[in-house]
Write a structure and sequence with these properties.
Number of strands: 0
Largest sheet: none
Distance between the termini: 27 Å
Shape: rod-shaped
Structural class: mainly alpha
Length: 68
């Protein structure tokens, strides 16, 4: 995963935490839930990026093993 993708996901998660906190402070349940959803989306994106990286690494190991 690129550093830019990681930073983007972290920023999205932070934004979700801020939104959730603002919802709690203002007693706005909709805003609070939106914040939780933003965090969940960021977590899913991060997991997807990590999975792509892992699959790429496995592919490289298989490729290397085939050439040995």
């Amino acid at each position: 995963m690129s550093a830019a993708d990681h930073a983007k996901n972290a920023a999205e998660k932070l934004g979700g935490k801020i939104k959730e906190g603002a919802g709690k402070v203002t007693d706005n349940e909709k805003l609070e839930n939106e914040g939780r959803m933003d965090q969940a989306k960021a977590d899913l994106k991060e997991a997807g990026e990590n999975l792509k990286d892992d699959v790429k690494k496995v592919g490289e190991h298989v490729k290397d093993a085939m050439h040995d």
